[in-house]
Each structure stands twice: as structure tokens, then as C-alpha cells.
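Can you give me the bound-state structure? Components:
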Amino acid sequence: SAVISQKPSRDICQRGTSLTIQCQVDSQVTMMFWYRQQPGQSLTLIATANQGSEATYESGFVIDKFPISRPNLTFSTLTVSNMSPEDSSIYLCSVLKGGVEQFFGPGTRLTVL
Amino acid sequence: AQSVTQLDSHVSVSEGTPVLLRCNYSSSYSPSLFWYVQHPNKGLQLLLKYTSAATLVKGINGFEAEFKKSETSFHLTKPSAHMSDAAEYFCVVSFSSNDYKLSFGAGTTVTVRA
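Here's the bound-state model for the whole set.
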């Protein structure tokens, strides 16, 4: 298994600003993922972040809006840039371990005013 | 096209009665299938997974699911619901063994009546 922490756990931000979310894993992993869960909805994959390469973004998500860093095998950050109220969501990171299983962090609840 | 569909947005059961959450998928290949649970204000927890071994998969907390390839279904069941089972349940599919991306169903909200 994997123990994942995220910081901050929640935040309230003003529109037009940016927030960087951190994801820390207790062991080295190759593949990390970032998801968004909009209010009352399911999870949508934002991007895959592998150490040593550029993040791969899903359709509808772009690097300018959601830049991702992956400096080592236990850490990643997701920045939500130039925020608007539509960015209010829970953002979750996950890691791949044990073949196909993904373990999820507790999430960061973001509210944009 | 690849997709995952949870047939019920909300399921309400009485404590002690069976729970059935339905999930269908569409894929040209045999995918990996998962059920995750999300309790209010909590993180996602894996209940069980199917990755091409036995078609009847047993998970945690008394849940199990059966993979039926002919019906492209992966329904989740529990013989006797407990109050603590009240949560959001997601059927999740990994369509590719190369990139491990997960596609989430819309979710089923389970309420348990005393």
C-alpha cells in the first residue's frame, strides 16, 4: 500500500490567483496522477505525472492552467492558475503501486470566490 | 467507445438487507475493474479489484463483485448492509494496461435506513 498526504487540505482563494497543491508519498513510485472532483460529481483525470518526463494532460486540461512538477519519486505538485469559481473542486493525487492498483490522497478542497 | 456506466445514482436500503450496485462498461478488451468507496469528507478507499483472475472477487467489509464478460458488467453486492456502508461508491475501469489511467463512473450514493 501507500500513504499519501496532501497540502493544503483545504483553501479559500480569490479569483485570479494561483494555488499550488503538494502531494507526498511514503515510498518511491513511478506513476502519479492528478484528479479533479467537481461538487457532486465523479472524478476526472487531469494528468499523469511521471518522474523524469513532462506531465501528460487529458483532453480539456492544459499545462498553462494546471502546471505540474514531479521533482522526485515521492513528491509532486499541481498548480491551479488564474483561478475562477469554476475551479472550485476537490483535487486528489494518486499513485500506482502493486501493478494496477491506485492509492489516493485525502484530497485538497478548493473554493474560489 | 470506452465507457463505464453506473446504473443507479442513488440506492436506499434497510440495515441488514442486501445491497446491489450495478456497473456496466464498454470496451473492446478485457479491462481491469475496481470499486472504490468515498465516505463523507474522507478519501477514496479501494473495496476490491478484478484483473483477469477469478471472476468472483471478494473485497473488504463483506463486499464482493462478479465480473461477467458476456454482460460487460461488474456489479457490487453485500449480503447485509450496515449503517457504516452509507457512502458514495464508484465503479472504476482501467481500459489500458499501458498507461493505467482510471475512468470513473458517475457514482452511486448509498443510504442505509435504520
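A couple of observations. Chain B has no helices and twelve strands. The mean pLDDT of chain B is 92.
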